[in-house]
Write a structure and sequence with these properties.
Elements: E1 3-7, E2 10-12, E3 18-25, E4 34-39, E5 45-51, E6 57-59, E7 67-72, E8 77-82, E9 91-97, E10 112-113, E11 117-121
Parallel strand pairs: 2-11
Antiparallel strand pairs: 1-3, 3-8, 4-5, 4-9, 5-6, 7-8, 9-10, 9-11
Length: 123
């Protein structure tokens, strides 16, 4: 069955960096568009980044120049490198997959999610 397991979250000072990982299993990882999304307390779900099957990447405006999404198809692992973390970045970060191989999808169409990893930015 499909499993997505995130790790790498933690507490970091403003301006610091974190690298999130998502170990994927149970599906042909490289055939699917993959997303990172986040949810802060009391707020709705926010899309953060996407990587498609060709490796093209897309970012929320607030993450451009700071976040990098990447994948390792040899280990079926998705990454999110986050630099210059700000006070608006704390949230639970989830990796998620689109439902149909090779096709993009909207946030509401993501069909499998990991449990999430907490990112906290504080002095």
């Amino acid at each position: 069955q499909v499993q997505l397991v995130e790790s790498g979250g933690g507490l970091v000072q403003p301006g610091g960096s974190l690298r999130l990982s998502c170990a994927a299993s149970g599906f042909f990882f490289n055939y699917y568009w993959m997303d990172w999304v986040r949810q802060a307390p009391g707020k709705g779900l926010e899309w953060v980044a996407t990587i498609n099957t060709d490796g093209s990447t897309y970012y929320v405006d607030s993450g451009k120049g700071r976040f990098t999404i990447s994948k390792d198809t040899a280990t079926d692992t998705l990454y999110l490198q986050m630099n210059s973390l700000k006070s608006e970045d704390p949230a639970v970060y989830h990796c998620a997959k689109c439902p149909l191989a090779t096709y993009s999808c909207s946030d509401s169409e993501l069909d499998f999610w990991g449990q999430g990893t907490q990112v906290t930015v504080s002095l």
